[in-house]
Amino acid sequence: MEYTAIINNVEDNWVGWIEEIPGVNCQEKTRSKLLESLKIVLREALEFNRQDALSVAGKGFEKEKIAV
Asked: How much is the pLDDT for 24?
């Protein structure tokens, strides 16, 4: 799966966020470190959201893949 990183160099710092996932944002001193941090935070956010969804689903749920 691919996501879009929006990045910008602001006052000698690199800031960025993932366009499709609210709350996934980082700030680093270098562009490469920013991209690395965004990947880590994105993975963590997706896993947290996955676990949260499963805990709310309760018993007897089904999983269905969808494409958009």
From this structure: 98
